[in-house]
Amino acid sequence: MDPTEDSDTHSVLITHSGSTHTFTLPTTSTLADLRLQIESIFSISPPYQKLTAPKLGLLKDDTIPITALPPPPKKVLLIGSSDAAMRDIKLANSPAAAGLRRFGGVGPVKAATPVQRRDWKREADLSRYTFGPIRVLQHLPNPARSEAYLKKLAEDAGIKAVMIKHKFSVGQLSEMDPAEHTTHESRTLGLNRNRGEEILLRLRTDGYDGYRDYKTVRRTLCHELAHNVFSEHDKDFWELYRVILKGVEEADWRHGGRTVEGGGDGGRVLWEEEEEVDGGGFEGGSFVLGGSAGGGSVEERRGMAARAAEERAKKRDA
């Protein structure tokens, strides 16, 4: 006869977080009695104890006889946090702890904010497809305002988007002197030298007393960017210009419609007549107000300007 059959006790091997302990209880004991013994050794209250036995699985019924549990060397797994750990958790989530955190007190570490992945390709494109140095005319009034104007154009969300899309790069972005590019017949609004080596833009009004409308100058810049690809003003050029202009306006999420930006003297915004002239002439990579797409005579350019004035008058009277 096995001597253990006459024994009045039953042993159970409990393992928890790498440590083990053998509990010996009377055979009349139940799982509830075992839980109390576990609390005395592992400092885990019965409600927080999860016991798993071989072949029996998770033990939920505390009325199970202790003899139903396998004796050593088989192990019963204990899962649970100590009472001290549970108190810390409750304290950290209490209203008092929330108040401490609100006023800078010590509290549990907040969940880490997910780190957004950097778009390395976009960053590389932004540094590659952009403008080089900015040059302004130091002999004219307020050169710092002109520099800020050109920087604003270079950092324009729409301009940056089309620069990347079309892989445009410009060696230098410069301010144009109105006096050097104005005649009785025309005014040059922009120049593109050697397909992007340098782009010059007319920023100032003819009298140097203010700055031209921002979106008007930006359209001139779009025109000059198209000259990075096409020198002549043929069908391909105009199609590319329209694509660039549309791309800039769609990507300009900060402003819509006819919102006006740009610097006027003392905050004054100056609307330019050339904004409504749609037949500008472009020669040698320059945007010239008052000409025709293929150049044309002075008479032709004057006739076009007169027709444009008539159209504007009709719109105002409508």
Molecular structure report:
This protein is α/β, with parallel strands linked by helices and 318 residues long. The protein has two domains: 3-85, Phosphatidylinositol 3-kinase Catalytic Subunit, Chain A, domain 1 (Ubiquitin-like (UB roll), Roll), CATH 3.10.20.90; 121-317, no CATH class. The protein is built from nine helices and eleven strands. It has helices spanning 31-42, 83-92, 95-102, 120-128, 143-154, 157-166, 214-226, 235-251, 298-317, and strands spanning 9-16, 19-26, 50-53, 57-59, 75-79, 134-135, 173-175, 187-193, 198-201, 281-283, 286-289. α7 (214-226) crosses α8. The longest helix has 20 residues, at 298-317. It is rod-shaped, with a radius of gyration of 40 Å. Residues 122-314 form the WLM domain. One of its GO terms (molecular function) is proteasome binding.
Query: What kind of sheet is the major sheet?
Result: 6 strands, mixed
Count, helices: 9
The H-and-E topology, N to C, reads as EEHEEEHHHEHHEEEHHEEH
Question: What percent of the residues sit in helical stretches (DSSP H or I)?
Answer: 25-40%
Q: Would you tell me the overall average pLDDT? A: 76
Biased composition (Basic and acidic residues): 298-318
Protein name: WLM domain-containing protein
Biased composition (Gly residues): 279-297
Domain WLM: 122-314
